[in-house]
Amino acid sequence: MTKIALITGGSRGLGRSAARQLAKEGVGVVLTYLSRAEDAEAVVSEIRELGGTAVAVQLDTGDISAFPDFISRLHGTLRDTWSADQIDFIVNNAGTGIHAAFAETTEEDFDKLMNMHFKGVFFLTQGLLPMIRDGGRIVNVSTGLARFSLPGYAAYAAMKGAVEVLTRYLAKELGPRGIAVNTLAPGAIETDFGGGAVRDNAELNAFVASVTAMGRAGQPDDIGQAIASLLTQDSQWMTGQRIEASGGMFL
Questions:
Q1: Is residue 250 part of a domain?
Q2: Fewest 10 Å CB contacts: which of 62, 64, 167, 193?
């Protein structure tokens, strides 16, 4: 039986890498995207070229009212693509970054981050509980910024800190079903996140490398491989944990 993963925000960056890595392990992938359907379909095509199976489904993870319709469409996608009615893995990855000093963070900024990074994760996971198979696994993507602090990320990091607490509660409450729930916290990664600053700003990239034990900024596949490992390897006994994949940033 093919195992199936749902990855939110799977059309770019870390989610795209996780989708590809899981497909290489023989996992079927449902990836969500917000608005860039062409990017999502490009990932689906890449996975098919690898010999895997993937489907892209639109979802705004910050719009909780859209979740019932999404779950209904997901049921249809699973039935039509895999003749299945359950998923094995959830990767709560979708997100965006807003860089603003604490004193300049607006309520609109705060609410956008809250809805996407915490409220959305909470209620989408809740809505998917009947669909996730007993013995499944959930990975909630956090950030190194929940451990170390850099000016301008107070709101973003606070939401991720909330997700890390939620992870422990999910692990406790879903443990009787054999579902393992963990947090993966990336460090600074070269993607288009936050306008692509770590990737495109040479000075910032050099700074990241200077405070990282491995001597470089992270690459998307560093995180995609870590997510795939948490979901597909024999790590079922590990749950409720925060695993940081930062190359040793700010040790």
A1: no
A2: 64
Q: How far apart are CA 251 and CA 240, in angstroms?
A: 22
Residues of the chain above pLDDT 70, percent: 98
The boundaries of the domain holding residue 200 are 4-245
Is 156 designated active site?
yes
What whole-number distance in Å separates Cα of residue 58 and Cα of residue 31?
8
Residue 204 is predicted with a pLDDT of 82
Render pLDDT for 114-126 as a digit per residue (tens, 0 to 9).
999 999 999 999 9
Tokens encoding 24:
């290489």
- Percentage, residues of the chain above pLDDT 90: 86
Residue 42 forms part of a structural domain = yes
Please indicate, yes or no, whether the overall pTM of this predicted structure exceeds 0.85.
Answer: yes
Q: How many domains does the chain have?
A: 1
Specify which residues 180 forms β-bridges with: 137
* CATH number of the domain residue 232 falls in: 3.40.50.720
